[in-house]
What we know:
heterodimer; A: mainly beta; two-stranded antiparallel ribbon; globular; B: mainly alpha; 4 helices; 40% helix
Amino acid sequence: MRTSFSCFIAFVSVPCFGAINLAAEEAPAELPWDQPATISYTRNGDGTSSAKIDAVLTYKTSQPERALPARGAYKSKYSAGLFLHRDTTASAPTNDRGGYFRFGGTYVPDFDNSQGVVTFDWAGKMSIGTTLVDAGSAGDPKYVDRTKDRQVVFGSVYYQPPLPGTPTTNPRPMVMYFVTKAGMYSDHSSGGTTQGRVTGHLAEVTASVAPLGLDPEQNKLGRFGFVPTITLAAQVQKDRTATGVRSANTYKLYSASLGISFSKLEKESGGLVPSINLTRSVGADLLTGRARQSKTELTLGFTF
Amino acid sequence: MFQLGDAKNAGLNALLFYSIDKASPYALAQHEATNSLEKVAEFSLVQLAITEQGKAVMWLWINAHSTPFGAKPVSPSVAGKAESVVDVVQAVYATIPAGGSK
């Protein structure tokens, strides 16, 4: 059972103007709720502006960890929640909201410990809600609300390659890890000119690199330590069948991000801890209602 | 103040070391300098290059296999605060009732 509760509010500028961010980490700490939320306000160079909200309120629970006969270990997890993804960008608006139930598990195999770190995860997710879809014609988009239900099942593998040598108390080894995901989905939209269901396959690869290691004590900036992480991700969703008036499409989404998390070198309480994230993403995502678009987001945050 | 030397349960110590070795990309057991729980006790988890997913691996393995040694699963709120090998050992031993260690 996860017990963290966090709230993250950010103002984002594209291109990079000023930004303010408020966050409250781990308060209260003992509730099984997980609530990452981002609220962004974007002001463009031409004077236009848009707002973006991504919020998922989740209740999580899990079964006790258990040893498997083949020396593996397994833990199953369940979660249910409410989601809201909204972007008021005029050319590619998003307004996806509803509820979901998710179940899955993590299996840790008893592979040779000198061969890196490996886990196998799987999950099934069912959601129902309302989303904004383009019911217009080519060159003349018309966005309308439609009821959606979606089902997704996928498996994923986490792999962290082995590091040579032995650890030291002042390390800066480059750490990298990979997550590959594959699965199937079904997406149903009711009513009007977008009625129908598509089913398809999805695949995703994420590579993360911490070029200066994971220890903030080794990368000092004033009274803070910092850990930069570069993440590259690519995903594809390919419709295999389509019913009603819908047609089969392929949705691709690519992203690259640089995140720098700071932490206090001394464990005093109080004060603000900054974080920075710069993300460039291109493409569409059927399962979050993201229309095809390219965007760059800079988030400057402060955690207290 | 808890000291690693207070941890007298050899079987549980072996499990803890195995779990940390499983979560770290270093081949800890294969090097003379790091092949026991006592020898890695000076390190923090990030110094062992253990990521957030690595921490999940470590706790899943510990909680799945520690019951035969008299320990109970460590709650996520306690596990989430462990930053070093000593923190991990202390958190697991704290679940053993007085006189319950085998």
